[in-house]
From TrEMBL:
<protein>
    <submittedName>
        <fullName>Uncharacterized protein</fullName>
    </submittedName>
</protein>
<dbReference type="InterPro" id="IPR029063">
    <property type="entry name" value="SAM-dependent_MTases_sf"/>
</dbReference>
<dbReference type="GO" id="GO:0008757">
    <property type="term" value="F:S-adenosylmethionine-dependent methyltransferase activity"/>
</dbReference>
<dbReference type="Pfam" id="PF10294">
    <property type="entry name" value="Methyltransf_16"/>
</dbReference>
<dbReference type="GO" id="GO:0005829">
    <property type="term" value="C:cytosol"/>
</dbReference>
<dbReference type="InterPro" id="IPR019410">
    <property type="entry name" value="Methyltransf_16"/>
</dbReference>
């Protein structure tokens, strides 16, 4: 008669380690506990997703206790060190998935875009583990929120740039602070144009990876994506030679660029150097209204843009509802946030 300790647990129950569950039982259980990375929706929060997934195993607390017990256990009853290492590694991954975005390991999310006349498509975006202050390795909610507005904006306040022959030659858009590249790649697809995605040298390898794995999708949509280093206010070695010619771009896009006191001035300087001096040139910026600090930085940015020798004024703006996972509240990591967007152009006195 088979040892009862090796039998799988009843349906919807976690095994008890004192029963010495078999390797296959543990591995199957850990697979069922997997949390897929969230792609935000206004109707479903990450907390709801976690709650729904953990309902199979009663609740989140039980799952955390089970995972912690595996990591603490010697798993001495398993047949080999290889099996033990696999179980420990999988349990560690499941635990990290429940400890907030900053604690997660590498993930890849696929972001869907509906067919709004440009054809439906999806983008695969890799996000390595966060290290130090490398926030550009994370996909922020503003990138998806703004990406989903691109079609609407192209037929609204940016329409003058999308009539045949209106864009600069060659047709291209510049994205500042691209991070993981979701916004810039989506812009290439939706607007069917060339987009230059830029960020710090340390962010470029992952950004280039995401551009590479999505190349076929972007080109099938009629767009192109190029990646280049561009540090706002950086030394010559931190800036690609292609940016030595100033004021080339008729359209600049940027999402969630402000999280330090010096960022408004640095971003303004980069915009001032790269934006064309023509009356039709535009800058599209999105800033999430997470807290008073972020709102204050936006106010500083607007003042900085208006004080330049070639002032930029906000010509159109709005706030849309969206989601983000900024913060450390692991019980409800995804939060609804108001995302402000604004379109800036040259002051009337500069348009002659």
């Amino acid at each position: 008669m088979r040892d009862i300790a090796l039998l799988p647990p009843p349906e919807n129950e976690l095994p008890h380690l004192w029963q010495k569950p078999a390797y296959g039982v543990l591995l199957e259980c850990l697979e069922k506990l997997r949390l897929e990375p969230r792609v935000w929706s206004l109707s479903v929060s990450r907390a709801d997703t976690v709650k729904e997934r953990n309902a199979t195993f009663h609740d989140r607390r039980e799952a955390l206790s089970f995972l912690s017990a595996i990591i603490r256990s010697s798993l001495a009853w398993l047949d080999s060190d290889v099996e033990r290492e696999v179980i420990w590694e999988e349990a560690s991954k499941r635990l990290s998935e429940r400890c907030g975005r900053t604690a997660m390991g590498e993930i890849t999310r696929r972001w869907p875009f509906e067919d709004n006349g440009h054809g439906a498509f999806s983008l695969a975006i890799r996000e390595p583990p966060l290290t130090g202050d490398s926030l550009g390795l994370k996909t922020w909610g503003s990138s998806y929120a703004l990406a989903r507005l691109l079609h609407e904006l192209a037929f609204g306040p940016l329409a003058h740039l999308f009539v045949p022959g209106a864009m600069s030659t060659p047709d291209e858009v510049l994205e500042l602070g691209s991070g993981t590249g979701l916004l810039g790649l989506a812009a290439a697809c939706v607007w069917k144009t060339r987009v230059v995605l830029t960020d710090l040298p340390t962010i470029i390898p992952n950004l280039a990876h995401n551009a590479s794995i999505n190349r076929e999708v972007v080109e099938a949509q009629g767009g192109r994506a190029e990646v280049a280093r561009l540090t706002w206010g950086g030394a010559e070695g931190d800036i690609d030679p292609m940016f030595r010619i100033p004021n080339r771009y008729q359209l600049i896009i940027v999402a969630d660029p402000l999280y330090d006191d010096d960022h408004p001035a640095l971003l303004t300087s980069a915009v001032d150097e790269q934006l064309a001096l023509s009356a039709d040139a535009r800058v599209l910026i999105m800033v999430p209204q997470r807290d008073e600090t972020t709102k204050g930085l936006l106010g500083v940015l607007r003042k900085e843009l208006s004080r330049r020798p070639n002032p930029l004024l906000c010509l159109d703006e709005d706030v849309v509802d969206g989601q983000d996972d900024w913060g450390e509240d692991n019980d409800d990591e995804t939060r609804h946030v108001g995302f402000w967007w604004g379109i800036f152009g040259r002051a009337e006195s500069e348009r002659g």
